Hints:
- By secondary structure, this protein is mainly beta.
- It has a domain at 1-159.
- It has one helix at 28-33; strands at 5-6, 9-12, 50-55, 62-68, 71-76, 79-80, 86-87, 92-93, 99-102, 104-106, 109-114, 117-122, 124-126, 131-132, 139-145, 148-153, 156-157, 163-165, 170-171, 178-184, 187-192, 195-196, 202-203, 208-209, 216-222, 225-230, 233-234, 240-247, 253-259, 262-273, 276-286, 291-294, 299-302, 315-316.
- The strands form eight sheets. Strands 1, 13, 14, 15, 16 and 17 form a six-stranded antiparallel beta sheet that branches. Strands 18, 19, 20, 21, 22 and 34 form a six-stranded antiparallel beta sheet that branches. Strands 23, 24, 25, 26 and 27 form a five-stranded antiparallel beta sheet that branches.
- A hairpin with a 6-residue loop joins strand 19 (170-171) and strand 20.
- The longest helix is centred in the first third of the chain and has 6 residues, at 28-33.
- The protein starts with a strand and ends with a strand.
Amino acid sequence: MQYLITGLILVCFLFADGTFGAGIETTPAQLAQSVYKIEEQRLGPVYEKSFFFTVSKDRRHFAYGTTAGDKYFVVVDGQPGPAYDMIGDTPVFSPDSKCIVYVARKDNKWFVIVDGQPGPAYDGIGKGSAIFSPDSRHAAYIARKDNKWFVIVDGQPGPAYDGIGKGTPVFSPDSRRVAYVVKKDNKLFVIVDGQPGPAYDMIGDTPVFSPDSRHVEYIARKDNKWFVVVDDQPGPEYEKIITYYSFHDDGVLDYLAYKEKFFYRVRHIPVLQGRKTDSHIYREVIGTRPTFLLTASFIKNITVGEVVKLSSFSFET
């Protein structure tokens, strides 16, 4: 399998004093009678060809790639950046629109530049791996040196592994935690906050944090049995875990599973015990007729949705 290996550049900037147009509050009647004033702004040069045009979330900033001879540039808010031998993925703005990340190569090395200062050179950067945290204060990506892969968070490399799962790393909603999937000695692990979890034969999907960022779950396989792991604790074993699962706002994890010609709906329900929150598992069988979920407080009729195929997971190796 062939992967595109790219580099990463992180550039931060402040808001410009002006915007593309000034907003004027009007009533519907005034708007119907208005005559529009047209404003035009020249965004920046296109030397030979352009590509990867993108706009920030707040619509105030823009970026695109352009070429001049054998050199590549990224233009941000009309200002061309340094020349490189290659520009990779489409530039991505941070959630608060104040930073941008894009990929580049120079002298056969891939590297990260923050505030105009180049970071360490790497042999490769995982395609599409660069992400911002939800609060835009942190950045992470996958890097390769020789035959080993690392996750870089805020410029600091983690331990070396044989591979890093695509779609990772991921930040928690509060931006304080990081999780990713790694491969080592033909076994797969999920790393959360720098600590490896149990070894499995397969990890079925990207780790997911709960809305309050306190818990993390993922699908795993061991000895041909699939299960959902929550905070390193495996749940019941099934022939398949249907990838219809999610954390609810109340912390309950809900998913579908299949075993012995029956579908199951499984819920991991947090239970407060003293000062520790544990997870209690409720399970029900979903057959060919309507069934019911019975708890101490209510009975709920269950309807079965469309069965979703178990997803596969690939790695940067």
